[in-house]
Amino acid sequence: MTPLISILMAAHQAERTIVAAVHSVIQQRHAHWELLIASDCGADYIGLCRAHGIDDNRIHMVTTPNVGSGPSAARNAALGQARGDYLAILDSDDTWHPEKLSALLPLAIHTGLACDNTCAVNPDGSVIDTAYPIDSTAREIDALTMINSGVPHFPILRRELAGDGFHSSLRFAEDVAFNMEAIARAGTMTLLPQPLTHYIQRPGSATNNATAWLRAEAAYAHILEMLAAGDLTVPSGKDSAIEAAFKNKRQLNLAYGVAVNGEPDLTFQAFISRIRKKR
């Protein structure tokens, strides 16, 4: 039988977006999955989905220990109930192309860890940018390439590569740390440079509101402390380079903070795309 994929979805005040996210899972061509929605706000997302005509016994809901526990704690709550040999992460305000799981699973089976070419889009569907140039040829990328892209990666991975899960002390950039550690355990990550994940950029969202850069600043400071203390699993021989990469991300975030103060509706991915076009 094809390996079961457990999809982890953290949800906090996601009533306006989660139905579209779940619908994109229902539409997957690969059908052997379970979706674990971790409610971090007390909302009944299963009931909400049923109210919108989605009633699928592959969808389950768990709750976090406390309301507002954060995305790491929510994903870990879902991970604790996951039954799959492979894991995938989908945020409650993003969507997948129907080929996401079927395209990435064979690569993940072969190498343990595979991602697609995340596409940042506006709420109206217009494309801001992709993490990498669009191509059809899979290739291997390392942790530095992933970190320096400036765009989140949403891989499929063998369960054991998740280690103990997400670091609960991180409420921002937790996905970058998680992916870095998974790459360190796997040795590399296979990239399929096709845009199969829509990373939807909403002004005012948790990652794009006027104070998001302040939370990111605190997170990067904490990550650097964790690196110095040896509390993060780093690819062998890459300690200094990884530290420098996170310091660069921190500086880029501070520059975004300056920019968003003048343009309150500027999303981080639009800011990154603007910088790329100037190079």
Characterise the protein shown here.
This protein is of the alpha/beta class. It has 9 helices and 12 strands. The chain has helices at 18-26, 45-51, 71-81, 100-111, 143-148, 174-186, 212-229, 239-262, 268-278, and strands spanning 5-11, 33-39, 59-63, 86-89, 95-96, 113-116, 119-121, 127-130, 139-141, 156-158, 189-192, 197-200. α7 packs antiparallel against α8 (239-262). The relative contact order is 0.14.
Furnish the topology, listing elements before pairings.
Blueprint (H helix, E strand, L loop, with lengths): L4 E7 L6 H9 L6 E7 L5 H7 L7 E5 L7 H11 L4 E4 L5 E2 L3 H12 L1 E4 L2 E3 L5 E4 L8 E3 L1 H6 L7 E3 L15 H13 L2 E4 L4 E4 L11 H18 L9 H24 L5 H11 L1
Parallel strand pairs: 1-2, 1-4, 2-3, 6-11, 7-12
Antiparallel strand pairs: 4-10, 5-12, 6-10, 7-8, 9-11
Helix pairs in contact: 7-8
